[in-house]
Amino acid sequence: MRHFFAALLIALAALPAPAAAQDFPSIGSQYVDFGASMMSVGQMNNVIGNTVRGRSVDRTARTAPPRSAVGTRYRASPVVSRRVGAQFADFVVRADPPNADRLRSFLRQNDLLGAWAKHVAVDGLQRGDVADAMTAYWVQNWQIANRVAFASRAQVQAVRAQISGALGGSPAFARLGDAARQEMAETFMLNFVAQGAAFSDAMARRDAGATSRLSDAAAARFRKDMNLDLRRLRLTNAGFAG
């Protein structure tokens, strides 16, 4: 993924309302994701975690990603996007009650999913695909936890192959319809924007304390939810490896 510290700020700066990145410091430093209680999100994160956990760099380099038996795309509905957006707004407001009115206004006025799409397009990721949404989220959290500014397109696409293969082999994922897939994907996208914007802003302001809190939060989320230590994982041209 690009030098997201600057690139995500640029994508958000193109939105019409001001102070985009600063709107998310509270959610970005939380140890619990928006949508973390969704059963499908937890299940799929653990499917990917089981795929990644314990893979050595040597073994990863020798092993081709599993072929996906089930497609990961979905047909999007504006009704689902509105519902997910409203739930996200409630989550953000709970994290920062004093700024509730300003936060709701910002979220109503801006297309955060469009900002996500603009940011990740350079790595060949796009809306309408659960694997793409999960890939961006996993790679960015790894970057934040390890304070690594750049991940190459080859590395991102290798992680996408891992995730696509894991989802394609999951009976639970195969049972999900378009609406459930869209809800899951957009949950990952919104977490990506909020967490990345908060970290980008902290880096731009050279706020060492905020940067450390956000980095620790990313590591803690994965440790708590997936029993996975992001700081022990390596990101390689063959994907994640332990």
Can you describe this structure?
With 242 residues, the protein is mainly alpha-helical. The chain has one domain. The protein is built from twelve helices and two strands, in the order ααααααααααααββ. Strand 1 and strand 2 form a beta hairpin. It is globular and about 45 Å long.
Terminal CA distance: 20 Å
Question: What is the number of helical segments per DSSP (H or I, 4+ residues)?
Answer: 12
Summarize model confidence as the mean pLDDT.
Answer: 82
Counted up, domains total: 1
Rg over CA atoms, rounded to whole Å, is: 17 Å
What is the number of beta strands?
2
Low-pLDDT ranges: 57-68
Order of the strands making up the biggest sheet: 1-2
H/E order of the elements?
HHHHHHHHHHHHEE
The backbone outline, from C-alpha atoms, is globular
Instruction: Give the strand content.
Output: under 5%
Q: Helical percent range?
A: 55-70%
Structural class from helices and strands? mainly alpha
Describe the main β-sheet briefly: 2 strands, antiparallel
Secondary-structure blueprint:
Blueprint: H1 4-13, H2 25-28, H3 39-52, H4 57-62, H5 78-95, H6 100-109, H7 112-120, H8 130-146, H9 153-168, H10 171-174, H11 178-204, H12 208-226, E1 234-236, E2 239-241
Antiparallel strand pairs: 1-2
Helix pairs in contact: 1-7, 1-11, 3-9, 5-6, 5-11, 7-11, 8-9, 8-11, 8-12, 11-12
